[in-house]
Amino acid sequence: MAGGLTHFNSAGDAHMVDVGKKAETHRIATAQGEIRMLPDTLRIIEDGTNKKGDVLGVARIAAIMAAKKTSDLIPLCHPLPLTKVSVDFHIDRQKSTVRCMVTCETYGKTGIEMEALTAVNVGLLTIYDMCKAVDKGMVMNDIRLLEKIGGKSGHWLSESGDAASATPLI
């Protein structure tokens, strides 16, 4: 087993890991990603003139819904009872980007990282979908886990330490 991965049974087939005997613990994960666009596209988002409506409002709801449905989207991912999902957007006019940051919490027996990462991806995809009529060249990048707290592995913080210093703008 490479790196201690446990999603394979004794026959080498993929399977859902048995977490039945693990203790429930408070788990928190924060992830982020960004979408780069033309300055005019960013302006449309900021001034609320997108013909499809409130881009960031819809993206926030989509991200929350995605976090709640992660186990339906990611094979072998356990369904988790989420206790909190927060979604924040940060606009950087100089880079012409919108950063999406999601924090998910649960009291569960496994993970929470996949929920935060899935929510970021869907939030960014929703921004793309709502703005693609004016800017098909948008680029999503730097999607990553920033921080994970709880569970058997304890506390993990990305080397950049972004989660600890992040402040939402919107």
UniProtKB/TrEMBL annotation:
Catalytic residues, chain numbering: D129
Main enzyme class: lyase
Domain Molybdopterin cofactor biosynthesis C (MoaC): 16-151
Keywords, sorted A to Z: Lyase, Molybdenum cofactor biosynthesis
Single GO MF descriptor: cyclic pyranopterin monophosphate synthase activity
Record flagged with keyword Lyase: yes
The keyword Transferase is assigned to this record: no
Pathway: Cofactor biosynthesis; molybdopterin biosynthesis
Entry EC no(s): 4.6.1.17
Reaction equation(s) it catalyzes: (8S)-3',8-cyclo-7,8-dihydroguanosine 5'-triphosphate = cyclic pyranopterin phosphate + diphosphate
InterPro entries linked to this entry: MoaC, MoaC_bact/euk, MoaC_sf, MoCo_biosynth_MoaA/MoaC, Mopterin_CF_biosynth-C_dom
Residues annotated as binding substrate: L76, C77, H78, M114, E115
Family indicated by similarity: Belongs to the MoaC family.
Function in brief: Catalyzes the conversion of (8S)-3',8-cyclo-7,8-dihydroguanosine 5'-triphosphate to cyclic pyranopterin monophosphate (cPMP).
Assembly with partners or alone: Homohexamer; trimer of dimers.
Name of the protein described by the UniProt record: Cyclic pyranopterin monophosphate synthase
Organism of this sequence: Deefgea salmonis
Gene responsible for this protein: moaC
